[in-house]
Amino acid sequence: MDEKQPPQVNAEALFTEAQTGGPGAALAARRAALLAERSDPALARKALALAARLEPLDPTPRLALARLHAESGDLAAARAEASAVLKEAIDKAAQARAAFMLGEMARVSADAAAARTHFELVLRIEDGLLAANRSDPTAARWYARARGRLAELDAGAGHLDRARAGAEGALAMLRGAAAQIGEPPVLAADIADAEMRLGALELDTGEANSARRRLGEAIGRYEALAITEKHEPHWRAVLADAWALAAEADYVRGAADAARAAMDKALQARIRLATKHPEEAWALAGTWRLRAALRAALGDAQAAAESLQQARALAEALCLQSADADVSARFLVNTLLDQADHALRSGELNQAREAADTARTQAEGFASERVAVGYWLGQTAACWDRLGEVGRAAGVLAQAQDAFARAVEFRRLALDHEPQSALAARAVSSALLKVGEIALQADAPESARAAFGESAAVRVRLAEASPNDRTAALGLATALERLGLAAMACGDRNAARQAWEDELMLADRIFGDDDSLEGMRFRAIVEAHLANAGGPGSDDHRRTSMARFDVLSKAGALTEREAALRRKLWGN
Asked: From what superkingdom does this record's organism come (predicted)?
């Protein structure tokens, strides 16, 4: 006779058994949650909630419930569960896990201050556990995790030295734990994360060779995890990110072929992931865009264009399926603008026009519906800007003038929506510069002068609001130079001299006592303009300008435009 087969364990049956109560009810609820986590997350959450009620002193079900709520996007419920554990749990280790979860949720919500508070709390709790037992590898691992997250926050705030120290400390603790207990998968994952974090920081500080070595360490561990845990998509996702960073490191260190190979491996990992997990298709589209940027930087224009077309086709298909039209359209419009920019650089004007106009149609639709209106007004302006660049490149100045003028109007609307935004004000000023430049090309100096004057006025306000901001001063200098050129084209030498004298006064604010070649170049060009404008002091400006150009020439740093200015000064 055949042996009797054991009954199949069923999550719903276990949950029903747990609901009836009894001494094994809590265990049945936890088992039901474990079985249902992948196939029926809603049932898993109900089972964990039941387990938490049945055993209120056990923090494990509540921590698991908080994790499942977070993974489903219900951050409010996840925070409530984690906060309850942090407040009520007696187990210090459980409190640390809850604090770490709260820090993670604050981090993804862009609340850096709250994230820092919770991660620092994790450090204090784990430090107390380590003080009692220095050989506790679990406490060391969670301490290192929190320290690594704080390093990421420091890097985001621009404190790279502090971030580097924190990231190195986290990795050292993890390697110490590995020396003690070996490298189980969970510890291998933490070490890989720490290596990748340090690699990214080293890329930011120009240490490409060291970064590539660290990223290689991370890649090896992620590849092993992707093989041993085939049903966990996270490992292929981080593996793809690690290969993309490795491609950047290879590019920076001049290894073009290695950069191409690394980026293609990132793409392959994303393709395999999206094949099994359709929700990962957006990340695949993003990787196509990264590949396009790398190939463009390497001079592979055709490969970059093909990558952008792949990203666009995928984004267009995903937009039709997306429940969040605004977010998906943002990705698509940015992809189209990337495509337009690349086509402009490659001289493919028809492709650039089509991509920019398609993006414009999308952006204007959202702007008219007043969905995140400030953002979409700015994006619509960016689309018109690209159409203006297409017209300028094609030599159709009337078309370029119209497009740049429309860009200015949308930039003004965006500024009206956010009147305190310095970024929106700079965007208006930059758009006005383009209107002025195209007007000069079209022999309309008065129109150019008006546009440059308005741009300069905006930048005066920005410079006055941030007197120590070198970028704001440099922006004002750019507008004043253009204003002087337009005034000269109008025959108003006095106004031109005034603009350039104001620009020259900004040199000390921009460069200080720095006698670098860039400061030398800036002063030489402005003084050449003043010499050519004539009037009092023009001879002195001519001599000092020629002397500065001589220094640039001896240094081999003279551009063709500057050489022409120098010859003009000699001729005069």
From this structure: Bacteria
Whether the predicted pLDDT of 513 surpasses 80: no
CA atoms of 161 and 159, how far apart (whole Å):
6
Cβ atoms 404, 385 nearer than 8 A: yes
Could you tell me if 82 and 66 are in contact, meaning their C-beta atoms sit under 8 angstroms apart? yes
Domains 6-90 and 420-500 share a fold: no
What is this structure's pTM? 0.86
CA nearest to 265, candidates 282, 245, 286? 245
Task: Please give the mean pLDDT across all residues of the chain.
Answer: 92
Instruction: Report helix angle 160-181 to 137-156, nearest 10.
Output: 160
Inter-CA distances, 346 with 210, 259, 303, 307, 354, Å: 34, 22, 12, 14, 14
Residue type, 568: K
Using alpha carbons, select from 485, 492, 563 the residue that is nearest to residue 524.
563
Structure tokens at 277: 């997990």
Pinpoint the alpha helices (H) of 369-469: 373-394, 397-417, 422-441, 445-465
At 518-570, the pLDDT tens digits run 889 999 999 999 998 988 888 999 999 999 999 899 989 888 888 888 888 88
H/E stretch holding 468 reads none
Is residue 181 a contact partner of residue 211, using CB atoms and an 8 Å limit?
A: no
**Amino acid 383: pLDDT:** 98
The pLDDT value recorded for residue 4 is: 45
Which of 359, 355, 329, 330 lies closest to 343 in space, CA to CA? 355
Of 19-28, 207-216, 287-296, 358-367, least confident by mean pLDDT is 19-28
Distances (CA, A) of 328 to 18, 107, 306, 321, 324: 42, 22, 21, 9, 6
56: CB partners within 8 A, 6+ apart: none
Residue 34, Ramachandran bin (φ over 0: left; ψ between -120 and 50: alpha; else beta): alpha
Give me the CATH topology for the region 6-90: 1.25.40
Are 359 and 403 in contact by the 8 Å Cβ rule? The answer is no
At residue 265, the 3 state secondary structure works out as helix
In CATH terms, is domain 420-500 a member of 1.20.58?
A: yes
Q: What is the dihedral of CA 194, 198, 200, 201, to 10 degrees?
A: 140
348 DSSP 8-state letter: -
Instruction: Specify the DSSP element, H or E, that contains 193.
Output: helix 185-204
Compute the distance between CA of residue 30 and CA of residue 32 in angstroms, rounded to an integer. 5
Query: What are the residue ranges spanned by the domains of the chain?
Result: 6-90, 420-500, 513-572
